[in-house]
Amino acid sequence: MKKIISILLTAGVMISSFTATGCAENMVTDGEKVIVLTVGDPMMRVNGESKEIDPGEGTAPVISNERTMLPVRAIVEELGGKAEWNGELCRVTLNHGDNEMILEIGSTEAYFNGEKQTIDTAPEIINDRTMLPIRFIAESFGFKVEWEQDSQTVTVSGAAATDKTGTEETVSDSEQEESRMLVAYFSATGNTETLAESIAEITGADIYEIVPAEPYTAEDLDYSNDSCRANTEMNDESARPEISGKIEDIDEYDTIILGYPIWWGTMPRIINTFLDTYDLSGKTIMPFCTSGGSGVTGSVSDIKAYCSDANVTEGLSGSASTDEEQIQEWIQSQE
Ligand SMILES: Cc1cc2nc3c(=O)[nH]c(=O)nc-3n(C[C@H](O)[C@H](O)[C@H](O)COP(=O)(O)O)c2cc1C
After folding, report:
1. Residues near ligand 1 with C-beta < 6 Å?
2. Nearest Cα to 10, choosing from 79, 69, 76?
3. Where are the domains of the chain?
4. Which of 10, 20, 163, 284 reaches 20 to 30 Å from 124, CA-CA?
5. Does the domain made of 181-334 have the CATH classification 3.40.50.360?
6. CATH homologous superfamily of domain 5-159?
7. More confident position, 54 or 240
8. In this structure, what are the phi and psi dihedrals at residue 136, rounded to the nearest 5 degrees?
9. Max Cα–Cα distance, the chain, nearest Å
10. C-alpha 20 – ligand 1 centre gap (Å)
11. Cross-strand partners of 167
């Protein structure tokens, strides 16, 4: 499993486009928000939907002095909070639910709900942008922050707060279980893996590779040969190729985005092994496939029949080159 590693303590956050009067309105949202930002990309993805981070300005997360800088205003607002900049006092005030944080440029003292706190990284202005320490803010407000080194991606997630004037109670992480997604995939020759990685990046989901205990060789996959291993397995409905390793925390995931190549019109038998291994009742399974041309439909029917207690959604027939727009359309059509 590719581990998404936690962001460094020294990571920072950049406030974009603050003006003295630029206070954001409180937003009323419901449920969990997952915000994915990539270094150098002025777009962010909010629950899979692409948005400009700093509308019209092209502001993108950057790495400066080994710190990742993120536009905190967009994040706080997306999570139902409010961010205000006081230019005279060089002070940033962040509100989320009933919580308030005040930070000042150049000061390692911050105030969280009126209590003085010490932060390891003082907020600073770089290129007219205000840098704030992300972990301190995230932990105080109960957001989760993850850093994916390979893709230079930061994922911020948390339960949305509501305006105090709204009818809903403020929701905190401790009051509402996080909704988590896992991309689990099997790929014999790499096509499904490429698509799985794109889906994980776009959705902010964790990713897990279903690795056969006995790897498939090119000979095993030569399906022009009736007696190759893959064909032998597909001709035997009870074949359950062993998987190497196990997901220990499957219960933490509500949605399994399940990927595989199409083999003879359906999913490979190792996917049945995967489905046998875990209790997926009550979970959502979102199947996706790559193939030489066959669609995902047959395998979706087979998964539905195999996991009658799970909510199996319409699948995605994709390829290694399925683009972000197609993936987002699919994700949104499942919601
Ligand atoms: C045993 C076997 C059976 C296959 N059967 C089909 C099929 O029925 N329809 C199809 O379009 N492609 C079929 N393919 C092609 C794969 O689905 C396709 O190459 C896929 O993208 C491979 O994904 P991977 O690189 O993740 O393993 C088959 C491939 C193998 C090895």
Report:
1. 187-193, 221, 223, 230-231, 261-265, 290-294
2. 69
3. 5-159, 181-334
4. 163
5. yes
6. Copper amine oxidase-like, N-terminal domain (3.30.457.10)
7. 240
8. -60, -45
9. 77
10. 58
11. none
